[in-house]
Amino acid sequence: QVRLVESGGGLVQPGESLTLSCAASGSIRSIFFMAWYRQGTGEQRELVATIHQGGRTDYADSVKGRFTISRDNAKNTVFLQMDNLKPEDTDAYYCKGKILVGQTVSDYWGQGTQVTVSS
After folding, report:
1. Pairing mode, strands 113-117 and 10-12
2. Beta carbons of 90 and 117 less than 8 angstroms apart
3. CA distance 75 to 102
4. Which of these, 21, 32, 22, lies nearest to 101 by C-alpha position?
5. What is the 3 state secondary structure string of the chain?
6. Cβ(23)–Cβ(75) under 8 Å?
7. Tens place of pLDDT for every residue, the chain, 119 residues?
8. Cα dihedral sign, 75-80-83-87
9. CB crowding 43-63: b at 16 or more within 10 Å, else e
10. Which of 33, 31, 40 minimizes the C-alpha distance to 62?
11. Among the listed residues 119, 115, 103, 109, the one whose alpha carbon sits nearest the alpha carbon of residue 5
């Protein structure tokens, strides 16, 4: 019923920038918040940034001042602008939406996109 599709991952050098996108589609009545997580192999998924329905944003300490989350409500799309990337930002990045479908609020996840920061 709802599908989240991420795009924009890739290989960049330290200090460079990358922008991820996540588009939600389907029988969406409302999106309460959308968020970006990242996960390395064998590691727990880490919350990177969240943007709430009213526009409030939250960031992990490790990315504050370097990453910016934003959303296009008309297109049900969330973005993650990542600047001054570091090798430790290398991970698979996933978007998550808390979405109202019918009368039910559920969490939906995208399939992930790989970000690799290496010289």
Report:
1. parallel
2. yes
3. 19
4. 32
5. CEEEEEECCEEECCCCCEEEEEEEEECCCEEEEEEEEEECCCCCCEEEEEEECCCCEEECCCCCCCEEEEEEHHHCEEEEEECCCCHHHCEEEEEEEEEEECCEEEEEECCCEEEEECC
6. yes
7. 899 999 999 999 999 999 999 999 999 999 999 999 999 988 999 999 999 988 999 999 999 999 999 999 999 999 999 999 999 999 999 999 999 999 999 999 999 999 999 99
8. negative
9. eeeeebbbbeeeeeeebeeeb
10. 40
11. 109
* Residue found under tokens 């969406």: 28
User: What residue has token string 């910016």?
Assistant: 68
- For tokens 């599709």, name the residue: 5
Residue type, 4: L
Q: Which two tokens stand for residue 60?
A: 């992990």
